[in-house]
Amino acid sequence: MTSIHPSNRHRFWPLLRCFLVGAAFCLPLSLTTAAEKQPLSRGEFVFRATGGCSCHTDFQNKGQRLAGGRSLKTPYGPIYSSNITTDKSTGIGNWQAADFIRAMQQGVGPGGKKFYFLEKHYFPVFPYTAFTKIREPDLVALWEYLQTVPPVVARNKPHDMMPPFGWRINLIVWKWFNFTSGEFTPNPAQSEEWNQGAYLVKAMAHCEECHSPRNLMGGLKHDQLFIGSKDGPEGELAPNITPDKTTGIGNWKPSDLSWFLKTGQKPDGDFAWGLMSEVIFEGYQFLDTADLDHIVRYIMSQTPVQHKVR
Ligand code: HEC
Fold first, then answer.
1. 211 CA distance to ligand 1 centroid (A)?
2. pTM higher than the cut 0.70
3. Which atom of ligand 1 is found nearest the CA of 299?
4. How far lies 98's CA from each of 1, 55, 103, in Å?
């Protein structure tokens, strides 16, 4: 074993530090260049912009990509994400494009029962409240991308939510109060770039689904979007991302935010953890600089709200 002579230690540590700092810089850079090599197909673009559907992969238990089974904590008990691979018996391999589009736009499963109250309504952990805003050609492209996901046999687990919250029939009432279907409509008073950012954020990246507080029914508080939530998804704290200088990200430069969405690194050198790191690494990091800039422009244009999330 080689050891460093004590008299040489003062030379070794700066060198090692140099190397570590260099490596820390090179890692995100290499991710960046890898991600920018090829332009994405529209379908993969939509997939990445949603955060790579990362909730459908059970990373913690080394689950297969998009095969579901991941426990997502809700205040009412755990719910398990579903298998969205092309497996015919346990995934969505038997679905038609129209089934997928309806699921995304209306939050209902395939089958198309005649009566609304008999349909399989989805729990809003599946953020169809955002995805309903995705334009139909983009949903079709996403559907086509999902056809390229290899089939994995993994049976969906029933949820463990306590009654009566676990009863799907309640979702009709929930939707009545908390859900409006319909695709994104641009704001004509704003620029094209701003609207592009708004579309990416609200329809695909669903930032507000995690970064906003919810009412007693678990619906988003629409007058408090982006101000952060102390019980965000999986019980994690989701910070205030309005441009407030003391409690939000008002001290971040626009380039800090796009760098963060590309690499997970914050201006103070810390890295994102939890669900944020998953949506970055499975999704947002693959978007090109122009798209990230649009997202940043939209987020930074929000009204700063002082709201400390503990
Ligand atoms: C699936 C849930 C989820 C989604 C979607 C999501 N975030 Fe986050 N985000 C989190 C969580 C949880 C944290 C806390 C983890 C951390 O700070 O590292 C976080 C942290 C952040 C931070 C760090 C703030 C700080 O003060 O440290 C920023 C900035 C951020 N998110 C922006 C965004 C933007 C912009 C989007 C959409 C493009 C987005 N997030 C989408 C869950 C999410």
1. 7
2. yes
3. 35
4. 64, 23, 9
Count of other CB atoms within 10 angstroms of residue 297: 21
Instruction: Quote the pLDDT of residue 37.
Output: 64
Percent helix, strand and coil across the chain, each to the nearest 5: 45, 5, 50
Average pLDDT over every residue of 77-83: 93
Instruction: Output the CATH code of domain 186-310.
Output: 1.10.760
| Mutation choice for ligand 1 from 276, 285, 287, 291, CB with most ligand atoms inside 8 A | 276
How far is it, in rounded angstroms, from Cα 68 to Cα 188? 39
Spatial separation of the C-alpha atoms in residues 64 and 57, rounded to whole Å: 6
Tokens of 143: 């559907």
Map out the domains of the chain as residue ranges.
Answer: 41-183, 186-310
- Quick check: CB of 154 below 6 Å from ligand 1? no
- Gyration radius of the chain over CA positions: 21
Nearest CA owner, ligand 1 atom 4: 207
